[in-house]
Amino acid sequence: MYIYSTNLEEIIEVLIRDFKDKTVVISLAENTNFDINELIECLVENDIQFIGGIFPKIIHNVQVFEQGMILTGFSDVEKTFLVEGLNTTDFEVPSLELDSTKDNFFFTFVDGLTTNLSLYLSELYSQFGSNMAYFGSGAGSLSLKQIPCVFNKDGIFQDAAVGFIAQSKVALGVKHGWKRVAGPFIATKTEKNVIKQINWQNAFEVYKTIVEEHGKAEIRKDNFFDISKAYPFGILKDNSEYVVRDPLSVTDEGELVCIGEVLENTVMDILKGDNETLVKAAEDAAEAVIDQLEFPHHAYISDCISRVLFLEDDYHLELEAILGKLYKNGKQIPLEGALTLGEISSFGDGYLQLFNKTVVIGLFEK
Description:
With 366 residues, this protein is α+β, with helices and mostly antiparallel strands. The chain has helices at 8-18, 36-45, 117-128, 203-215, 224-228, 275-290, 305-311, 315-325, and strands spanning 2-3, 23-29, 50-55, 57-60, 63-65, 69-74, 77-84, 104-111, 132-139, 150-152, 155-157, 160-167, 170-175, 179-187, 189-191, 194-198, 201-202, 233-235, 243-245, 247-250, 256-258, 266-272, 298-304, 327-328, 331-332, 335-340, 343-345, 353-355, 359-364. A 6-stranded mixed beta sheet has the order 1-6-2-3-10-11, covered by helices on one side. A 6-stranded mixed beta sheet has the order 5-4-26-23-29-13. The two termini are 15 Å apart.
């Protein structure tokens, strides 16, 4: 459900009326003129169970909004959680004894610019393994400056994650549409989400050579993201999509800063896409999920913000292609979600992954 109003009484009234006995996921557009702490206080006072994240923009069916919020309700939630301190390695993920005969899933919003995002996901998988499906989104600002961006009943946090564990049948679709143009290369020196060397050479110099050869345009520090948004890195996984890493910026030392960690000695390709391949990939992701559930109730989409920056005026074609496939039992399945800084899914080989520049669709029965 999309809500434009910032009137707290109206928002609470809607939540009590339409989301009784559900845990509410709040996806808030960052340009909303809103006191998030007042919202949290009102939600707690009214005993509404919730988690939330702040995103560059939010999605309702085929529309993108820079203000307002998306409210999504989930039933049969076992546990909500907050994990702080993701800028360190000293954090604890939740634990819970689960009935492995049930269809469990894990939903999470995480600070998309924290330094140990992939480690957080790895710790989750170590805790719960392949006994459940995983889905989530990287929150944060379009400015790519780190801000407090995930929230729950305890407040709003930076370098943190919120989420819940619930029961429902889930179908996951993950596609991106980017194709290899050069590689393979080895990330021979890295530090968390920073690539320092590629093939034992300065990372930016290697990347610059390839991108300028294919793009026919000079890439510099001041225009880096404008050009790099079309040339991500791809880490090839067996029987699955590339895991894409989005280079966001270059340091004075020629180091490439990405969303999500890149392990040292990772083998990577440089990718390129066009509007047609990206839109087709999004359509394929929707087609992949719709036949997996007999009675789908709603869909949540985590769609990378850099896709809309790349597609520009054609981005609506991506959402139209997705929604066009989300029909079941003669009904349109509603689509809602956010434009994100990192996409999270256990799609493909079953292992929990952080993606960039990717469409991740979660289809839920309840």
